Amino acid sequence: MHICYLCDEYPPSPHGGVGSFVRTIAMELVRRGHLVSVVGFYDVREKTECQEMGVRVIRLPRSKTPFANIWVHRFVLAQELKKLNQKAALDLVEGPELSFAFLPKLPEAGYVIRLHGGHHFFSTELGRKPRMGRGWYEKISFRNADFFCAVSQYVADKTSNLLNIHGPIEIIPNPVDTELFSPSPTKEEQGLIAFVGTVCEKKGIRQLIQAMPLILDVHPTARLLVIGRDQYDKNLNKCFTEHLKQIMDSAIHSQVFFLGAVNHNELPALLNKASLCVYPSHMEAMPIAWLEGMSMGKTVVASMTGPGVEIIEDGENGLLCNPFDPKSIADKVNCALSDTNLRNKLGFAARKKVEVEYCMDVLTEKNLNFYRNCLSAIN
Predict the structure, then answer these.
(1) What is the mean pLDDT of residues 315-331?
(2) How far apart are CA 105 and CA 146, in angstroms?
(3) Residue 78 has pLDDT above 80, yes or no
């Protein structure tokens, strides 16, 4: 089959969980003999098209037209999909929540929305009112889609209620490359804490940094590695990393290291040195970073909000904290750093869970079954 993913963050371009997912699943589908294309808008001067590990990746220049980006993008994207369809008939076009607003339909292809956590979901879960324009676009996009799948039961239930989705939503978690993210005999650096994610308020990095003095009171040699791209915060009128450095307790400056974005293939070596991974996100849909840490056989301290309990059983294969409370974060981190046997037990159980529930083979087959069912419904 020929599947086209709509993605504006395909690696190595700046990316988050959606980009990581698309790259992982696209390469695996190609390996299994399917045709995969990826189309999106990027900060490039002109259209580029190349083959990356067998995946056709088309990067279109992002429009600079004020207030008209969505219309320009939809016109350009529609033309690109027509060209792709003429070269090799498209069976399915898949994208995240906003993908199909005002996008003309290719009558022979099925349109799939994969719920990674859209505008209504995150706005509501984070206590904000959805913006009128963006919320309207999202509703239109959902009306134009034929099929739905979601990365967690939590995001499926919440989005279904918010947008009145009628029909089934297949639950397919994000897969992890368990070969790339696998435990290594390299000795961990005692007290090293790893955070991976966009440096922004939603990821709970501010509360983690506020927890560091409480952690250092118990473990004076603890260090925090902050790995991930910086984000400009419009409310603060500055990059979030700059904000964190300004509000950070001066006593911990030498214990916190901002590495910025790193190549995905370099991430396992960094995680392998860590004693534990800490991800106190305020809200997630199905965080790949958590799964990658678990796949490394690391103790993951993560958020009890949202789908946290779907992924981690507190005290069994990881630890859950209140992401809004620095003391809760510190208590869980201190507990894990103080007990090597506990870390080993939790890390071993985490790896086993990922191997059974989140490995590429299991979830690629689940995706293929879903796609086959979609095609059967069309035909």
Answers:
(1) 98
(2) 10
(3) yes
Give the H/E segment covering residue 22: helix 17-31
CA distance 226 to 311: 22
CA dihedral 109, 113, 119, 125 (to 10 degrees): 170
The amino acid that residue 95 corresponds to is G
The mean pLDDT of 238-254, rounded to a whole number, is 92
Q: Exposure of 123 by Cβ count < 10 A (0-12 exposed, 13-18 middle, 19+ buried)?
A: middle
Q: Which tokens sit at 166? A: 């009628």
| Nearest CA among 170, 226, 173 for reference residue 198 | 226
Let me know: does 38 contact 57? Beta carbons within 8 Å: yes
The answer to whether the CB of 51 falls within 8 A of the CB of 35 is no
Q: For residues 266 and 135, give the distance between their C-alpha atoms in angstroms, rounded to a whole number.
A: 37
Cβ neighbours of residue 228 under 8 Å, at least 6 residues apart? 195, 196, 197, 198, 199, 203, 260, 261
Amino acid at 52: E
CA atoms 163, 169, 173, 174: torsion sign: negative
- DSSP SS3 for 196: strand
Show the beta-strand stretches assigned E in the chain: 2-6, 35-42, 48-52, 55-61, 92-95, 110-115, 147-150, 170-171, 192-196, 223-227, 232-233, 238-239, 256-260, 276-279, 299-303, 319-321
| Contacting residues for 135 by C-beta, under 8 A, at least 6 apart | 119, 120, 123
**pLDDT value for 67:** 61
Q: Nearest 5°: phi and psi at 239?
A: -70, 145
